[in-house]
Amino acid sequence: MKFSNLYAVAGLAAAAFVAPASAQTITGAGASFPAPVYVKWAEVYNKETGVQINYQSSGSGNGIKAIKGNTVIFGATDAPLSGEDLEASGLVQFPTVIGGVVPIINVEGIKPGELSLDGDTLAKIFLGEIKQWDDAAIAALNPDVKLPSTAIAVVRRADSSGTTFAFTSYLTRVSADWKDRLGVGTTVQWPVGLGAPGNDGVANNVAKIGGSIGYVEYIYAKKNNLSYTRLKNKAGKVVRPETASFQAAAANADWKSAPGFGVILVDEDGDASWPITAATFVLVHKAPKDKAQTAAALKFFDWAYSNGAPYAEELAYIPLPESLTNEIRAVWAAEVKTN
To answer: Residue limits of the PBP domain (predicted)?
Structure first.
């Protein structure tokens, strides 16, 4: 079954299960990066409590817009808001899980994890400067791989995307040219490529287009059986995207160093670290209009912190450490007025 069929863009949680008509429904919207785990948590939580979580996977930019506009109870973003933005908007921000953004490819004869890239080469591909799969820069990183003389077709996000924020944050760290020309953003002025909405849109287009490359949260590659690349990390080691390499990148995160726990986990130190690791975040109002609904949303995420780790790990996400979730609960108690 195609992964996008499991996680439709709109009303995806509602499609995952049917709650009784009298059940409480909590609405959320935003990042597609965590959508698979939010859907799974929502399904299990509904069975246990009868509460329905209706989450729309519409992209981080839409999630921020929706919570600021009070059209949902919680918004979701992979691009953390600044302290100034949180304060001006009256929002509280907190992380939920950690995952990895991975380059995915559709190149004939190349198996998952067989091709290696480094940051500079990846940047040049997405800048449109490297145009063929047998380019000398790619060949130098893969002396034992038979590379076809096939044109590279770039697939990137068309919407405002936290996954794009993580991807461009990494490219900005490792490529001076990328930093000077495009920089970091949920959207950038892409010089090349086909735009697609959501992680599932990128995954589906890469699956269909020969010679293509894109970037998605790891579970979208895994569930669609797409080939992914290895990457050379900050320590100069070539690593695979997997739970252990995501954990290694997150191991030394200083969550208190940024407002709203908004830590950027790209290009981290460590031999085993995956270089495009990212947390994903939820936004709620400090003084919500619907206190009961916001309290119910926080109760759901509290349940997820206590009970959701096995479901997250099944989907190749990294649960947050207990020390961090306890800090998050303390922030809820101090800053979110639900009574």
So the answer is: 21-307
Residue 1: is its pLDDT beyond 90? no
Residue 236 dihedral angles phi and psi, to the nearest 5°: 85, 10
Task: Please tell me the pTM assigned to this model.
Answer: 0.89
Q: Cα-flanking dihedrals φ and ψ of residue 280, to 5°? A: -125, 150
Nearest to 101 by CA among 232, 214, 251: 214
Q: Is the dihedral of CA 187, 120, 267, 37 positive or negative?
A: positive
Decide if 3-98+279-335 and 101-261 have a common fold.
Answer: yes
Number of H helices, E strands in the chain: 15, 13
Q: Which superfamily does 3-98+279-335 belong to?
A: Periplasmic binding protein-like II (3.40.190.10)
Instruction: Please report, for the chain, the start and end positions of each structural domain, with discontinuous segments joined by +.
Output: 3-98+279-335, 101-261
Q: Over 50: is that where the pLDDT of 89 sits?
A: yes
Q: How many residues does the chain have?
A: 339
In sequence order, the β-bridge partners of residue 94 are 282
pLDDT at residue 9 is higher than 70: no
Give the span between the Cα atoms of 248 and 35, in whole angstroms.
Answer: 23
Cα 81 off chain centre by:
15
Q: Is the dihedral of CA 20, 281, 59, 75 positive or negative?
A: positive
User: Could you give the 3-state DSSP secondary structure of residue 193?
Assistant: coil
DSSP 11: S
Q: How far is CA 148 from CA 42, 114, 138, in A?
A: 44, 14, 11
* CATH architecture, domain 101-261: 3-Layer(aba) Sandwich (3.40)
Pairwise CA distance, residues 269 & 274, whole Å:
9
The pLDDT, as a whole number, for residue 339 is 87
Position with higher pLDDT, 8 vs 60: 60
Q: How far is 216 from 202, CA to CA, in rounded Å?
A: 7
pLDDT digits (tens, 9 = 90+) for 201-254: 999 999 999 999 999 999 999 989 999 999 999 999 999 999 999 999 999 889
Reading the block at residue 168, the tokens are 């461009």
Tens digits of per-residue pLDDT, 272-296? 999 999 999 999 999 999 999 999 9
Coil, strand or helix at 211: coil
